[in-house]
Amino acid sequence: MELPFAESWRIKMVEPIRPSSRQEREQWIRDCHYNVFQLPAWQVYIDLLTDSGTGAMSDRQWSAMMMGDESYAGARSFFKMKDTITRLTGFGYVIPTHQGRAAENVLFSALVKEGDVVPGNSHFDTTKGHIESRKAKAVDCTIAESRDTQLEHPFKGNVDTEMLDRVISENPDKVPFIIVTITNNTAGGQPVSLENLRQVRRVADKYGKRVIFDSARFAENAYFIKTREEGQANRSIKEIVRDMFDLADGMTMSAKKDAIVNMGGFIATRHEDWFEGAKRFAIPFEGYLTYGGMNGRDMEALAVGLDENTEFDNLHTRIHQVQFLASLLDEYGIPYQRPAGGHAIFVDASKVLTNVPKEEFPAQTLTVELYLEAGIRGCEIGYILADRDPVTRENRFGGLDLLRLAIPRRTYTDNHMRVIAAALKNVYDRRESITRGYVITEEAPLMRHFTVKLAPAEQ
Ligand SMILES: *Cc1c(COP(=O)(O)O)cnc(C)c1O
Question: pTM of the full predicted structure?
Answer without folding.
Answer: 0.96
